[in-house]
Amino acid sequence: MEAGAGGAVDRLLPMTAATDRPTRRLLLVHAHPDDESINNGATMARYAAEGASVTLVTCTLGEGGEVIPPGLASLTADREDTLGTYRIGELTAAMRELGVDDVRFLGGAGRYRDSGMMGVPENDAPGCFWRAEPDEAAGHLVAVVREVRPQVLVTYDEQGGYGHPDHIQAHRVAMRAYRLAADPGYRPELGPAWRIAKVYYNRMPRSVIEQGLRDTAAKALFPGVAATGDIPGVVDDEVVTTALDGTAYAGAKAAAMRAHATQITVDGEFFALSNNLGQPLLATEYYQLVHGEPGPGAPEPDLFAGLDAEAAR
Ligand SMILES: [Zn+2]
Predict the structure, then answer these.
(1) pLDDT class for 123, splitting at 50, 70, 90?
(2) Do 260 and 274 touch, CB atoms closer than 8 A?
(3) If you measure from the C-alpha of residue 34 to the centroid of ligand 1, how many angstroms do you get, rounded to a whole number?
(4) What is the DSSP letter of 42?
(5) First to last CA, the chain
(6) What mean pLDDT is predicted for residues 178-186?
(7) In this structure, what is the dihedral angle of CA atoms 258, 259, 263, 269, given to the nearest 10 degrees?
(8) Its Enzyme Commission number (predicted)?
(9) Ligand 1 centre from 18 Cα, in Å?
(10) Rg (CA), the chain
(11) How many whole angstroms from 312 Cα to the centroid of ligand 1?
């Protein structure tokens, strides 16, 4: 199902009866449109193709982003300020490429505005996500958790992967909602309590990204190459618990990233953001399990590994 033309995509599907739910249910919480495709595009495409329920909650419209195509330059916040609306369309197109039909904006489209990079005046703007009251923001997510009843939650680490205020806030809101959703005493009107079995952070093993950046320098056509420090979520290899082989979905991931054309330029197995610094487009996506029991495999090959999903209905 697709978002209505130009409309909000905070509720694309009617609520599904519990007996009709897919057995495996994945929830991803991201800050801006495009983060999901860059971090989890292959993961989302794979689970959607396998019949799992995949729900994406995006916290802002990414209104503060730069714009790569010169013909769209007037969308930016300092000119027409219509980038957020435009990016709803990009996200909708990206989700079509991944086969994901449950996409929502936290609190509804436009409820929280992009806060800009750390240290800019937009960090203090009323209505920006960085200034959101965490309990109020988490309440919107608790409602989603209790409706969808996911076994797996994916979000960022405490630094938001690389320090962007909206990514840090997405982490805080996701973790707060994870705890509150499981508390039967918290706002019972939002639905019965639900405990998410496994929580993961997006990660990038240092050895993988270092090799990927060497490949980028050797083969990619971008004018420069990103540094390891530019890449979100880089950790020592042993921190990574889970590697999701999305090779079969690399094309879908690349197509989803291309759909975010204001933000991303894709060149074969490489891509660049508006800084035009190349980095590898990886089909294997990496995670760190931070809550829940690991399943078999080192690294785990599956976010649902070890779960008795039938029992989790
Ligand atoms: Zn982002």
Answers:
(1) very high
(2) no
(3) 7
(4) H
(5) 24
(6) 98
(7) -20
(8) 3.5.1.103
(9) 33
(10) 18
(11) 31
Separation CA 281–CA 270 (nearest Å): 5
pLDDT at 281: 98
Residue numbers belonging to the annotated binding site for Zn(2+): 32, 35, 167
Residue type, 14: P
**What's the maximum distance between 2 C-alpha atoms anywhere in the chain?**
56
Angstrom distance (rounded) from CA 21 to CA 8: 24
147: tokens are 């409706």
Q: What six digits make up the tokens of 260?
A: 């975010």
- The helices-and-strands tally (H runs, E runs) of the chain is 6, 12
CA 296 to chain CA centroid, nearest Å: 25
Return phi, psi of residue 178, to 5°.
Answer: -55, -45
Q: In angstroms, what is the span from residue 224 Cα to ligand 1's centroid?
A: 21
By residue count, the chain amounts to 313
Q: What is the mean pLDDT of residues 3-12?
A: 45
Q: In this predicted model, what pLDDT tens digit does every residue of 41-54 receive, in sequence order? A: 999 999 999 999 99
C-alpha closest to that of 63 among 80, 79, 81, 78: 81
Instruction: Pull the structure tokens for residue 212.
Output: 């990927």
**Phi-psi category of 160—alpha, beta or left, where left has phi over 0 and alpha has psi -120 to 50?**
left
pTM (2 d.p.):
0.93
What average pLDDT score do residues 218-239 get?
96
Report residue 1's pLDDT band, with 50, 70 and 90 as the boundaries.
Answer: very low
Cα-based distances in Å from 170 to 73, 88, 94, 199, 278? 27, 18, 20, 14, 26
